[in-house]
Design brief:
Layout lengths: L26 H16 L4 E3 L9 E6 L13 E13 L4 E8 L2 E11 L1 E7 L5 E7 H13 L15 E3 H22 L1
Antiparallel strand pairs: 1-2, 2-3, 3-6, 4-5, 5-8, 6-7
This protein binds nickel (II) ion.
Nickel (II) ion binds next to α2.
Length: 189
């Protein structure tokens, strides 16, 4: 296994529509998927798509760590998972706003609207069908990774650029606000 180099925003490999994986069971695809999972964990990240490691094919790996899971049946923790030649569709019209980052856009995050519920289908490295429903964080990570296969990066989905910034700055501001609120709450007692 190997840690792969991750393409950063500005590289045209991230902007192209990727090609279907012709043979999901091929040994080189299995090797690629294992390397992508290792690269995702090393980064660390929660998702990684083919074009992010300079392979413009329709596949991605993802996981839902326990701290991002919830009681919702379709947003439980998910171990490292691959989806090859995925298709996704929104269930219903409902969208939600939440923060997103991307390993190809280091040290930044933004608030991005996404469908709250989706249905997905694809195959795994044995060519077996994988399908299900996903909600909340699980749905968000799949939509983010699937966008990579169409050359779409999350900033292209941002609707309010006031909520786009560097992690260090956003964290600093949030911490200041938290301290101010705590001080105010203490003063009011
Ligand atoms: Ni990404």
């Amino acid at each position: 296994m190997a840690i792969l180099k991750i393409a950063r925003m500005g590289n045209p490999v991230l902007l192209r529509k990727c090609d279907p994986v012709p043979d999901p069971g091929a040994p080189e695809i299995r090797r690629l998927v294992a390397d992508m999972m290792q690269t995702m964990e090393d980064a660390p990240g929660v998702g990684l798509a083919g074009p992010q490691v300079y392979v413009p094919l329709r596949l991605f790996v993802f996981r839902v760590p326990a701290e991002r899971a919830s009681a919702d049946l379709n947003n439980r923790g998910v171990p490292n998972t691959v989806l090859i030649n995925p298709e996704i569709e929104a269930i219903g019209e409902e969208t939600g706003l939440n923060w997103e980052g991307c390993l190809s856009i280091p040290e930044m995050r933004a608030v991005v609207p996404r469908a709250l519920r989706i249905r997905y289908r694809g195959v795994d490295c044995d060519g077996n069908p994988v399908e299900g429903e996903a909600t909340l964080f699980h749905a968000r990570v799949i939509q983010h990774e699937n966008d990579h296969l169409d050359g779409i990066l999350y900033p292209m989905r941002v609707t309010d650029f006031r909520y786009f910034g560097f992690n260090a700055e956003l964290d600093r501001v949030a911490e200041e606000q938290r301290q101010q609120q705590a001080a105010q709450a203490a003063a009011e007692q």
